[in-house]
Amino acid sequence: MKKVIFISITLILFSCSSLLKRGGIIFTFDDQYVKSWVANRDLFKKYDVKATFFISRPQLLDSGQVRDLKILQSDGNEIGCHGVNHLNAMEFAGPAVKYYKEEVEPAISKLNVLGFRIVSFAYPFGPAPDSVDSYLLKHVKYLRKATWNRNNTTIDTYDNIYARPDSFHIVNSMGIDCNYSITVENLQAGISRAQKNNEILVLHAHLLDTSGLAYTTNPAFLEQVFKLCKKDKIRSYRMEDMEDFFSQHKLKDSR
Ligand SMILES: [Zn+2]
Predict the structure, then answer these.
(1) Of 15, 24, 68, 190, which shows the fewest CB atoms inside 10 Å?
(2) Ligand 1 centre from 232 Cα, in Å?
(3) Ligand 1 centre and the CA of 119: distance in Å?
(4) For residue 215, how far is its CA from the centre of ligand 1 (angstroms)?
(5) What confidence tier does 32 reach under pLDDT thresholds 50, 70, 90?
């Protein structure tokens, strides 16, 4: 009898964890809009969303911004690196080691000194040559690139914005700022794919405000997206969670 109860509980727990593990979503935010991010921390908390904030030019952060970043970190968010001078790796003259030494290493060092452990880097402007990817992966665990809805289609058609068990150390992300005109219905298509395939959909945005200007995301729109995640029971992850996510996924598949 005891054994039956034990097995039943194990099965219930296992099916619950399987449900929770069905796909995921990563919200990332770029540059230095720390004030706007921390101003919306209650929104993140309300929907239990954890995100990764990629900081550019950390040497220019003032003490208030550093304090706010620590608040975001203590809320469970990840702080990532986005370069010391926000330089495009595709336009950078010189080998990968030079890009690392001049653009990446000084930014990570500065963030370390400020108290942030860095495992993720997001390329300024999005793209990078393969040689830079390979070099940087010796120094950080995760690289995030960036794209937008350039094909004007549903976002489930962009394979590279989904992290998968065989490719998650380098991921692309879909821009959701208002100038990219991604609708909630379109995001629904993206979330459905992630759940169906047990992948992680990666998104990026910048400043959170209501101006409607390019590279801003209205907090009301973000809330609609968070609501959608809640409705579909898709969990948010940070970039740094991907290895754990996919190793548990593998474990589950091998049972
Ligand atoms: Zn940027």
Answers:
(1) 15
(2) 30
(3) 17
(4) 10
(5) very high
Q: For residue 85, what are its two tokens?
A: 């001078």
pLDDT score for 22: 86
20: left (phi over 0), alpha (psi -120 to 50) or beta: alpha
| Ligand 1 center from residue 82 Cα (angstroms) | 7
Residues 6+ away with beta carbon under 8 Å from 251 = none
Q: Is the pLDDT of residue 196 over 50?
A: yes
Residue 252's pLDDT is what? 60
Spacing, Cα 216 to ligand 1 middle (Å): 12
Largest Cα span, the chain: 71
What residue ranges define each of the domains in the chain, with the CATH number in brackets? 24-254 (3.20.20.370)
pLDDT digits (tens, 9 = 90+) for 225-250: 999 999 999 999 999 999 999 998 66
Using the mean position of ligand 1's atoms as its centre, give its distance from the Cα of residue 198 in Å.
Answer: 28
